[in-house]
Write a structure and sequence with these properties.
By secondary structure, the protein is α/β, with parallel strands linked by helices. It has eleven helices and 13 strands. This is Gfo/Idh/MocA family oxidoreductase.
């Protein structure tokens, strides 16, 4: 059995709760989350010790111990990406396959440093939104997409990754500039690609499911409502990465996504003005 180590800001969060069971089921028990480390305890959440005991996962007192005893590593902290660079320092030096949860980095500079560190130590590593692997997206024709309108729930800070990632995976990384067109309660970002292509992300609250409209240069169009088991597809991909050591996401896309999100936050302070990437 291969052992997986969790490294998190705090452990009582949704991804840490769900991933162990999903991974064990997907691998028939051949991979298991065996160790965990939490940087801190959060008021109103289970302590790291109580969470670990409840999950039957051994809590270790240092990142170093988790790295040393695990075959594969997952850096979590999905809602606090500002801690990813700190939490991933030892994993990225380990040479062991390492997955870093969404959102990869708070800005492009941090993303570049983390990728360079992994390269220097020959550590296989990638990061992604699970939405990248939704069946509705993976079966799409990418060639000739002229425009995309994407909708979904949540805040820009925590959930825009789930719309930006599929857009970049479909339209590529030749991105020129962005413009904020949203309000305080309905974030919206216009993303301008080369050759006049464009995409918008729109966040309309928790009752708004992930969906997407596409227009092709040929004149055809499609509307997608994301209803497939994208987390199941993501877990299958994650398991494949651990086995092969081959990242599923091109690093240029990871950098482009980090840049869009960073400049998008800046654009929110100056609505209806273009900001170059």
């Amino acid at each position: 059995m291969k052992k997986i180590g969790f490294i998190d800001y705090f452990l009582d969060e949704w991804h840490a709760e769900k991933y162990p069971g999903w991974i064990e089921k997907a691998t028939g028990g051949h991979m298991k989350v065996a160790y965990a480390y939490g940087k801190t305890n959060i008021e109103g959440k289970l302590s790291n010790a109580v969470w670990s005991e409840k999950k039957g996962i051994r809590l270790l007192d240092s990142i170093e111990a988790v790295v040393e005893q695990s075959d594969y590593l997952i850096v979590l902290s999905p809602d606090h990406p500002e801690y990813h660079e700190e939490l991933s320092q030892l994993p990225l030096r380990s040479g062991k396959p390492t997955y870093i949860d969404k959102t990869f980095a708070p800005d492009r500079a941090a993303a570049e440093r983390m990728l360079e560190l992994a390269d220097k130590h020959r550590t296989p590593m990638y990061s992604t939104s699970a939405l990248r692997f939704a069946l509705e997206y993976t079966g799409l024709e990418k060639e000739g997409i002229e425009s995309i309108c994407s909708l979904g729930p949540g805040s820009f800070e925590h959930y825009s990754i789930h719309q930006v990632e599929p857009i970049v995976s479909l339209m590529g990384t030749d991105i020129k500039r962005v413009m904020w067109t949203g309000t305080a309660n309905t974030p919206a970002l216009l993303i301008a690609f080369a050759n006049g292509r464009q995409a918008t992300i729109n966040q309309y609250g928790w009752e708004c499911p992930f969906s997407m409209a596409l227009r092709y240069e040929s004149g055809g169009s499609k509307f997608l409502k994301i209803e497939s088991d994208f987390f199941g597809a993501f877990i299958d991909n994650l398991v494949g990465f651990f086995e092969s050591g081959v990242p599923a996401v091109p690093r240029q896309q990871t950098l482009a996504i980090a840049t869009i999100l960073e400049v998008g936050r800046k654009a929110a302070r100056t609505p209806y003005s273009w900001l170059d990437l």
